[in-house]
Design goal:
Length: 146
């Protein structure tokens, strides 16, 4: 039940909070969906349960990976590593937390930004079933809570 609330928080609240939703990036038959949002949109108990930090200068990156099959899309388990870089070139690692509920798998990580600005994300995605490691790159403007 707690994970359902988390998934709802991760997927619905950012949209309601004007988080920038993007089309997925395609890597062959894999689709990588991603979004970012300010961590203050997470309920405190959800953040604590998953190990995410809430605060005015903390954001969350949310990633889900699917593979297209003849039977429809299937969640892909993977190992994710990455970093976020601000406009001054300061790089911070992303430490992804894997969340699974039934057939769905999500990867979330905190990042910190002390002021409004454009952030560059680079995430290495390695499917757990093997295959080529792919690099997801995107930019997102961060707005700290005021």
């Amino acid at each position: 039940m707690m994970f359902r609330a988390l998934l709802l928080s991760l997927l619905l609240l950012p949209a309601l909070a004007n988080a920038q939703q993007t089309s997925p990036q395609r890597f062959g038959d894999m689709l990588v969906y991603y979004n970012t949002f300010n961590s203050s949109y997470l309920l405190p108990d959800i953040a604590a349960t998953t190990g995410l930090t809430r605060g005015p200068n903390h954001g969350v990156v949310n990633i889900a990976i699917q593979r297209e099959t003849q039977d429809g899309p299937v969640a892909v388990d993977a190992l994710l590593t990455g970093n976020v870089t601000n406009l001054l070139g300061q790089r911070s690692p992303l430490r992804f937390i894997r969340i699974q509920e039934e057939e769905s798998i999500y990867f979330v990580a905190n990042y910190t930004a002390t002021q409004r600005g454009l952030l560059r994300f680079e995430v290495e995605v390695r499917p757990s079933t093997g295959g080529t490691t792919q690099t997801l790159r995107f930019q997102q403007e961060f707005f700290p809570d005021e």
